[in-house]
Amino acid sequence: MKKIVSKNTNGLNGCIEIPADKSISHRAAIFSALAKGTSIIKNFSNGADPLSSLKIMGQLGASYEFVSDNSVKITSNGSLKRPSAPLDCGNSGTTMRLISGILAGQNFKSTLIGDESLSKRPMKRIIEPLTLMGAKISSNNFKAPINISGCKLGAIDYNSRLASAQVKSCILLAGLHANGETSFTEPYLSRNHTEIMLEAMGANIRTDNTTTFIQKSELKPLEINICGDISSAAYFIVAGLIVPNSDIILKNVGLNPTRTGIIDIIKQMGAEIEILDEYTFAGENAGDLRIRASELKACTIEKDIIPRLIDELPIIAVLATQANGNTIVKDAQDLRNKESDRIKAIVTELSKIGANITETEDGFIIQGKTQLSGDAEVECYNDHRLAMSLYVAGLICQKPITINGFEWVNISFPTFEAHMNQLSE
Ligand code: S3P
Q: Are residues 14 and 44 in the same domain?
């Protein structure tokens, strides 16, 4: 689907509710199916990715029912059954990596498949540590399809070279079914939704610095009201900062400190942002944000902040085109392994619309401030985050842009444009 985006000349104004967090929704669907009893999940994401997780847990024996538009009830007897068909993870790396950790320790065989993009993504990062635990896995040269012959697993102490919440969660979920205590150490702390939710469900889990320990545990059902996704809010945060005369309020934004790298960075860049109300629900912080159009200065983004804003880097690139000076992003090599090679994609597409951006091996350098010209057709590489980032860029281009493949926003944020329109009325 082609989407034409034109300059916004009035500014964005008003208040919107940010839809449910994708990472937390995945975990709620997956972990509820491991607990004996009925779990109630309010404000479950309507993105295609979390729905892939929910459907697979259904194939593995849990039953689920939407009791309203976005509340789902999941019932399980606490054990999973052999699926009668391959498990289709669609576009979702989180689904494939987390569920692999569970399937490795079951007493049946299963196969995980994915779409074209997911079938190209690296799975060695989970297959290697799972194999160390005793798992029996074959794959297409460490890519999907992944065939798992479930078996008894043993605990390991794993030192990960990557700060990846998907790898961490995979190993912790395998550890939940393994004999002994498993530990997972990462170079920097990645998002910790798995740890928070498993603890709330009664698992024997604890974190010390960047090491998390887990032992075999029974889970109790979950009751949760999922907060809004800061990764979805990020498009509005940036739009509010760069579209002149904007003043917006974003309600119910998840503010888990392992996810708030973007807030730290925009404050450093001089953004006018206020946290109006902050609260905690089921161990996760959330709050309302007020954002106003601001004069911005460049900054360097590197090291331990990278996992705290990894999904926001494409939209941060758009932001950096409007900041004075050189914004440098480094230590973000893993961006090349996302739904697309996000380094190459963002550099290629922002260059087309007039940004001064240079690709590096592990990031990019942007020289600002630039008046984006637009007047080009841009590609989103079947990547939802590219589609939304380019849309926001289109709001400040002199001439309209055409985004090809805009329907990919449905992966995480089907109502993205409707939300944007609410702020432009
Ligand atoms: C996620 C972890 C991150 C992130 C992805 C969601 C999760 O991936 O990019 O969108 O829910 O655990 P990595 O673990 O590969 O960094």
A: no
Average pLDDT of the residues of the chain = 98
Where b means 16+ CB within 10 Å and e means fewer, 224-260 reads: bbbbbbbbbbbbbbbbbbbbeebebbbbbbbbbebbb
DSSP 227: P
* Residue 45 CB–ligand 1 contact under 6 Å: no
Q: How far is the CA of 343 from the centre of ligand 1 (A)?
A: 16
Residue identifier of the C-alpha nearest atom 4 of ligand 1: 311
**Given the CA of residue 194, which atom of ligand 1 is nearest to it?**
12
- Is residue 406 within 8 A of residue 5, CB to CB? The reply is no
CB of 28 closer than 6 angstroms to any ligand 1 atom = no
Residue 13 DSSP SS3: strand
* CA 371/CA 365 separation, integer angstroms: 17
Question: How confident is the model at residue 282, as a pLDDT?
Answer: 83
In this structure, the answer to whether residues 65 and 143 fall within a common structural domain is yes
pLDDT at residue 182, rounded to an integer: 98
Domain range holding 66? 22-225
Residue 372 CA to ligand 1 centre (angstroms): 30
- When divided into structural domains, the chain yields a total of 2
Whole-prediction pTM = 0.98
Catalytic positions: 311
What does the alpha-carbon distance between residue 327 and residue 24 come to, in Å, rounded to a whole number?
Answer: 31
Q: Tell me, yes or no, whether 187 and 250 share the same domain.
A: no
Tell me the per-residue pLDDT of 238-294, one tens digit each, with 9 for 90 and over.
999 999 999 999 999 999 999 999 999 999 999 999 999 999 988 999 999 999 999
Question: What pLDDT, in 10s, does the model give residues 15-54?
Answer: 999 999 999 999 999 999 999 999 999 999 999 999 999 9
Rounded CA gap, 72 and 66, in Å?
4
- Both 322 and 287 in a single domain? yes
**Ligand 1: does its nearest atom lie under 6 Å from the Cβ of 173?**
no
The verdict on 273 and 391 lying in the same domain is yes
Verify that 259 and 340 share a domain, yes or no.
Answer: yes
- Which CATH number does the domain housing residue 78 bear? 3.65.10.10
Question: What pLDDT is attached to residue 281?
Answer: 80
In short, whether 231's Cβ falls inside 6 Å of ligand 1 is no
What percentage of the chain has pLDDT greater than the value 90? 99
| Per-residue DSSP letter, 333 | G
CA distance linking residue 386 with residue 408, whole number of Å: 9
